[in-house]
Amino acid sequence: MPGSCSPLRFPYPLLHLHPPPSALFHSLPSPLLHFPHPPFHHFPHPPYTAPLRLNNVSVAGQTQKMNLFQSITSALDNTLSRDPTAVIFGEDVAFGGVFRCTVGLRDKYGKDRVFNTPLCEQGIVGFGIGVAVTGATAIAEIQFADYIFPAFDQIVNEAAKYRYRSGDLFNCGSLTIRAPWGCVGHGGLYHSQSPEAFFAHCPGIKVVIPRSPLQAKGLLLSCIEDKNPCIFFEPKILYRAAVEQVPVEPYYIPLSQAEVLQEGSDVTLVAWGTQVHVIREVATMAQEKLGVSCEVIDLKTILPWDTEAVCKVNRMLENHFSPHVSGSLSPLLASIGPWNLVGIIFVCVIFLCHSMVTVLSNYRWVKTFVTWLIC
Amino acid sequence: MRKMLLAALSRVLQGPAAAARPVSRVVVASRNYADFASEATFDIKKCDLHRLEEGPPVTAVLTREEGLHYYKTMQTIRRMELKSDQLYKQKIIRGFCHLYDGQEACCVGLEAAIKPTDHLITAYRAHGYAYTRGTPVREILAELTGRKGGCAKGKGGSMHMYAQNFYGGNGIVGAQVPLGAGIALACKYFGKDEICLTLYGDGAANQGQIFETYNMAALWKLPCIFICENNRYGMGTSVERAAASTDYYKRGDYIPGIRVDGMDILCVREATKFAAEHCRSGKGPILMELQTYRYHGHSMSDPGISYRTREEIQEVRSKSDPITLLKDRMLNNSLSSVEELKEIDVEVRKEIEEAAQFATTDPEPPLEELCYHIYKNEPPFEVRGPSQWIKYKSVG
């Protein structure tokens, strides 16, 4: 039941809004403190080595070492082979895509099923909605998440509302939009954005972000199967960096279910995508240096998120790439409810990209609100 | 014995100067500038026209000064781009770098036909335009390397360079075209006889907002020249595979269009003069398609040979290179000499080397300036950094 957590214990360093005691500050990974050369892969990516169990059923079968883009290719390959109506389209997908996610698919399945579109994101998504409305499975690729904004109107006004406005007569549930997401360190303004918060405000679509190849394949297949339009953001920094043994056969990881990666009792750390690996490292460091037991949760589905997993927190630290103001924190906070906020809620946003800056116009609001909570 | 005595005697008689006199003299050739013609007339390719009765002239006059100036500018841009390539491979330039070599005739030709008070906006392949619009090479290279001496103070990078009456430098494909129409509206509104050149590529020509802009510009008769730099490939996609109609100059439908050979600087100059005249006379917008070619790939992370053959690139280099075309014209018509052009090359190389030296040694912008210029504010405000204990000041 929400709110029924362990008795409140406030580890002193985490409470303070003033510059923290040197122990915590200096024990942060040093690259995070020293700009302007932020690290690209400073965090370890521990591959999943235990047998994959989904709903307590182990996923058997042959596995293959794959990185993130290869696991995406595998998922798309499975889809195209099983679903004769599936088509993949986007800018430059025919030769394999700028991140090699669709390599070999055109040769295997033909140019009618894997084809390039001209440079028109609004057109791509609108076209995808049309394909999906007829019942075919449409997998649209937007070349970078930063370019998704011309298609924003189509996603929010058309795709998300189709089922509702037609009284369930029509829907574009078989539409999945994939886009490389998140910062890489050298992306600048237009190859680094994390726009999931814009879509988190829109009922009718699902927003999913995996943290690893194993998660990516299962979640992408679930998105494609799901009867609602889904946006699948792929952390581009992990395309080559994350490598795991991934089953070759299809398997499905349920959407809207967060995963607790590490149990803990003092504070809950919530993240998604690349940041999950950072907070796992932070959790280990907090345990070693501060004796703080952290619960690490990978949210996976941003919308609709797993309210049960997250609502049991008492003290939560949420961690994400996107700008601070009205980041994905706000709807999460709103759903948790005021009685669970007895404690301190921190938002920790870590930017790995130079030019992602935050306008903290409501930082003072947060500080005031939090002070009110304590008093 | 006698021969030795004779030799000694002759040496004595010649005097001390004999030792200093060189055995052979080198005659230094003196250049006589009167040998050069002051101008020459050239036939240029006729432009294809859409909804126009007459087009730009088929002959162009090139004076010696103009020729040398164009040559020097194009060579500077070419060497600057090659230097950027080198610096990128040395990882001194990071991020994105879209190089303009091969297309120099476009920017130099355009600049030759317009006034410095006219306005120009383009997409991300902007280094050439940044130079022709007045940014010194050292500032361009410093911007690429992210130093504070750069034209955008090191915060913009390759795609975001700005100068007087040059509005960038825009990353999102096609997004700059409606902006260009807006600038043209301002030109018309202020009544200063200025026009706006709005450039985009063959890939962007398929964006919806371009067509929206055509409509607005034609409806309100804005003094806007839409210029499509058709370099045959939108990143990795050839124009045939991306566009139902590759006649980009006709895509404006009700807007008149010209198709121009973008590798010939005189062709570009004459066509732009014609188009500028069309806009300034109040007839409304006009569309120009410049058929050009880029030697490098789309950006530095694209080798540029997976979607086109090396032979094709070589063929264009040998047959239609803009600098070679101009050089041949000048040499064949006695507008210049090989030595003079070589001297210009040496000068240009020196300038680029110095600029590269500056770009690699200038300090980076200080971390305090990371969050400047987010908003224009009266009092500076604080911006939260990656954690709540790291704060940056934002000064407008």
Automatic annotation (TrEMBL), chain A:
Give cofactor(s), names only. Answer: thiamine diphosphate
Q: Which GO terms describe its biological process?
A: branched-chain alpha-keto acid decarboxylation to branched-chain acyl-CoA; response to nutrient
Q: Which UniProt keywords apply?
A: Membrane, Oxidoreductase, Transmembrane, Transmembrane helix
GO CC aspect terms: branched-chain alpha-ketoacid dehydrogenase complex; mitochondrion; nucleolus; nucleoplasm
According to its UniProt record, this protein's enzyme class is: oxidoreductase
Any keyword Protein biosynthesis?
Answer: no
Q: What residues does the Transketolase-like pyrimidine-binding domain cover?
A: 66-241
Q: Which InterPro entries match?
A: THDP-binding (IPR029061), Transketo_C/PFOR_II (IPR009014), Transketolase-like_Pyr-bd (IPR005475), Transketolase_C (IPR033248)
UniProt entry tagged with the keyword Oxidoreductase: yes
Q: Which reaction does it catalyse?
A: N(6)-[(R)-lipoyl]-L-lysyl-[protein] + 3-methyl-2-oxobutanoate + H(+) = N(6)-[(R)-S(8)-2-methylpropanoyldihydrolipoyl]-L-lysyl-[protein] + CO2
* A Pfam match: Transketolase_C
Membrane-spanning intervals of the chain: 339-360
What EC number(s) are associated with this protein in UniProt? 1.2.4.4
CDD domains tied to this protein: TPP_PYR_E1-PDHc-beta_like
* Protein name as it appears in the record: 3-methyl-2-oxobutanoate dehydrogenase (2-methylpropanoyl-transferring)
Species source reads Chelonoidis abingdonii (Abingdon island giant tortoise)
Automatic annotation (TrEMBL), chain B:
Cofactor(s) needed by this chain: Mg(2+); thiamine diphosphate
- List, alphabetically, the InterPro entries matched: DH_E1, PDH_E1_Alpha_Subunit, Pyrv_DH_E1_asu_subgrp-y, THDP-binding
Ranges of residues in domain Dehydrogenase E1 component: 73-367
Q: What is its EC number?
A: 1.2.4.1
Enzyme class, top EC level, equals: oxidoreductase
| Signal peptide extent | 1-19
This protein's source sits in the domain of life called: Eukaryota
Name one cellular component (GO) term. mitochondrial matrix
Q: What is the purpose of this protein?
A: The pyruvate dehydrogenase complex catalyzes the overall conversion of pyruvate to acetyl-CoA and CO(2), and thereby links the glycolytic pathway to the tricarboxylic cycle.
Q: What is this protein called?
A: Pyruvate dehydrogenase E1 component subunit alpha
